[in-house]
Amino acid sequence: MGQYNTKAGDQWDIIAKNVYGDECKADVLMAANFPLLDIFQFDAGTTVECPELTETTSETLPPWRT
The domain containing residue 25 runs over which residues? Predict the structure, then answer.
C-alpha cells in the first residue's frame, strides 16, 4: 500500500487521478481512508493511504449503469 501526501485543494477525485490515472477510482481511496471521509477538500500535508488495485477493486458497474 502506498501513500499520497495531499496538496492544498486536493479532492478525492483529483487524488485518484494522480495516484491511479483514473478519477473513477476515488471510491477505492475512500474505502481505505474511512477516518478522512468527512473531508471534501484537503489541506496540504494529509496522508492518504493508497491501496494497490486488484481485480476486486477494478471498476465493476452497478446493474443500473450497464
Answer: 2-65
Taking the complete model, does pTM exceed 0.85, yes or no? no
Based on the structure, what is the number of domains in the chain?
Answer: 1
Cα(53)–Cα(7) distance, integer angstroms: 23
pLDDT, tens digit, 9 for 90 and up, residues 17-38: 999 999 999 999 999 999 999 9
The 3-state secondary structure of the chain, one letter per residue: CEEEECCCCCCHHHHHHHHHCCHHHHHHHHHHCHHHCCCCCCCCCCEEEECCCCHHHCCCCCHHHC
Place of cell 487521478: 17
Distance CA(16)–CA(27), nearest Å, equals 9
